Amino acid sequence: MERYNQLAQAFAYTPIHVYGVYKSKLEANRLYRGHVDQPTAYGGIILGLRGSARFTFNGSNSIEVNQGKAIIGGYQMRLALEVGETGCEYALIHFLADGRTPQAALFQKAHQLEYLFEPSILQMVDELIQIDAEPGEIAALQKKALFYQLLAHVLRLARLQQKPKNSEVMEETIRYIHAHYHEPITLGQLAARYDMTPKYFSAAFRKCTGVGPIDYVIHCRMKRAHQLLMTGAFTVSAVARSVGYQDPYYFSRLFKKQFGVAPSYVLLEMKK
What we know:
Blueprint: H1 3-13, E1 16-26, E2 31-35, E3 43-57, E4 61-66, E5 69-73, E6 79-97, E7 110-114, H2 119-132, H3 137-162, H4 167-180, H5 187-192, H6 198-209, H7 213-231, H8 236-242, H9 248-259, H10 263-270
Antiparallel strand pairs: 1-6, 2-6, 3-4, 3-5, 3-6, 5-7
Helix pairs in contact: 1-3, 2-3, 7-10
InterPro entries: Homeodomain-like_sf, HTH-like, HTH_AraC, HTH_AraC-typ_CS, Tscrpt_reg_AraC-type_HTH
Domain HTH araC/xylS-type: 171-269
Organism: Shouchella clausii (Alkalihalobacillus clausii)
């Protein structure tokens, strides 16, 4: 799985608490050793904004940060920082992950990420800094929402930067699935659209998205089914048919596997 997909999966399934948001300017040709003896207390997202600096974790993992390069993770790691000849400006967002989830272990390493830098990154960082200074629970919720928005934007830009082979084909496939999820879709049918073998197509799709093509189809169908059930206006059988399943019992098993409750339960709750 590509690095951006690994990180997206970890953040999607791990509860995160967002702490401080900072923008730092460091003088050229300086060495900072503030965390050499004392490991970091938080995980972090470091986004290079201007200039460059080299972050060395645990004495061996050396990562250069400049505009378009980021570091994600670094929790409980020793850190030294060597600034380049032009100085360095970077944004830092501290976070802690719930260590009870298996994906949280990913944040105990420092991961380098290259992405297509856009000016919108600067704007989003400034918005985060501004909301971080505001008191209250609503501001804390806004900060977390902006954190995820910025993170998702950076990960999407990282995917564009890497442009894996067949990425355009996979993006077209995703559009096709969203338009035709309610119709019969098979792996063989999707692969045949591009004269690929099912095995090769499935591997390429998974590399681009992090999931297999049929799992992606099921996810789209279940998401739409949940939306329809939330209206309270349709029976389970009608919802099943509308997302491509003639057998409501099979649909119910897939729905419960994804959401943890039966579709009939969602419908009943909406009618109370």
